[in-house]
Design goal:
five-stranded mixed β-sheet; 1 helix; disordered N terminus
Length: 146
């Protein structure tokens, strides 16, 4: 007996997933909302220039990291979810008729901001304070010996 099953209707393109006010990509461009992503952060992709109503498959290192359907103008938005987290640069590829690409740098740090400058300054002032106190005690001991 043949089994007949209706094909599922593709989901409608997402409308409000883009988290930041970033310009719409130009024709043939794939944009990511972050150029650097830390473990656990959500990454979103937005592209333009796909075939209208085409299935969009997002891959990185030959692994599928997202899928969606482009709209009638060939634009799309989709979350990007990596199955594994490896530090370094990865290229996200969107296949939807044409092929669109965008790089993303993956880091282990819990922060992708400028906290490292704060730590360097803190270390500098701690070291400077240690040296000042040390030389004050050294001068005091030298004066007592005379």
């Amino acid at each position: 007996m043949p089994v007949t099953q209706a094909c599922p209707t593709p989901p409608a393109p997402s409308t409000n997933t883009w988290p930041k006010a970033i310009p719409v990509p130009r024709l043939g461009e794939l944009m990511l909302d972050q150029s650097v992503v830390a473990a656990g952060n959500t990454l979103f992709a937005r592209g333009a220039g796909c075939d209208p109503l085409a299935k969009v498959v997002l891959t990185a290192d030959s692994q599928i990291v997202g899928t969606t359907i482009s709209d009638t103008a060939g634009r799309f938005e989709a979350p990007v979810q990596f199955a594994d987290f490896r530090t370094g640069r990865r290229i996200v590829v969107a296949t939807c008729g044409p092929t669109l690409t965008a790089p993303v740098d993956m880091v282990l740090s819990g922060s992708t901001g400028g906290n490292s400058t704060t730590y360097v300054l803190l270390l500098f002032f701690l070291l400077a304070g240690f040296l000042i106190v040390r030389f004050q005690f050294a001068d005091g001991f030298a004066a007592r010996r005379r």
